[in-house]
From TrEMBL:
Its EC number is 2.1.1.152. GO terms for molecular function: precorrin-6A synthase (deacetylating) activity. InterPro entries: 4pyrrol_Mease, 4pyrrol_Methylase_sf, 4pyrrole_Mease_sub1, 4pyrrole_Mease_sub2, CobF. It catalyses: precorrin-5 + S-adenosyl-L-methionine + H2O = precorrin-6A + acetate + S-adenosyl-L-homocysteine + 2 H(+). Residues 3-223 form the Tetrapyrrole methylase domain. GO terms for biological process: cobalamin biosynthetic process; methylation. Pathway: Cofactor biosynthesis; adenosylcobalamin biosynthesis. Gene3D superfamilies: Cobalt-precorrin-4 Transmethylase, Domain 1, Methyltransferase, Cobalt-precorrin-4 Transmethylase, Domain 2. This is Precorrin-6A synthase [deacetylating]. Keywords: Cobalamin biosynthesis, Methyltransferase, S-adenosyl-L-methionine, Transferase.
Amino acid sequence: MRKILVIGIGAGNPDYLTVQAIEALNRADVFFIPDKGTEKAALRLFREEVCARFIREPRFREVVVPIPRRAETPDYRANVDEWHAAIEASYERLFAEALGPDETGAFLVWGDPAVYDSTLRLLDRLLAKGVAFEHEVIPGIGAIQALAAQHKIPLNRIAEPVLITTGRRLGEDFPRHPGSVVVMLDGTVSFTRVPEPETVEIYWGAYLGTKDEILVAGRLSEVCGEIERLRAEAREKHGWIMDTYLMRRVGGASEQAE
């Protein structure tokens, strides 16, 4: 039976690959490489560099998977479902055409496959349709771990929870959350609209783990403008941006803990 490996390759630094991930790379016959256009060509090149660096006997094949753009309408969930349906159809066709009955295919997933990536959801859709394959998931070091490591901070404070959310939900989630809030995929700089920014600390990072990495930390009221400027300049330079940040109120309960 065909087998699919979903391999987490880290947040942009090849050194983030685990031994398990490297061994999985060397088991694959076919790599399905997403192509999101010229804007995100760097992401495709990184996957190719990973293969060149870690695969001991390069006998694999690469199959490019064109990824359509997601529609931008007010009905976000409907947009995502339609987008996933198109990608799912592409995967089903490529599994049949490019992967032999006893071969192993692989997806190289940026960061960790279980955190803000839809590859596993798409494979579940195919399995539900009766497409026959086995699959295995290899975890990776994601942007959240890289963000905390680069800023030299723990994600949580003592006895406080951590919430992972998106920019579109930040206005609802952050004011009522008692601990740290990690924001992924913020396309609208939602941190600029947080009330009482002088009471909030932010740890922000873009292109984490790469040579283009940018880090800023401090009181939101003091660094908000700098982050907004750096973010705009980086997006203009590279054509895309991938950033993550953590926010929490200054003076949490753990700061009084002995």
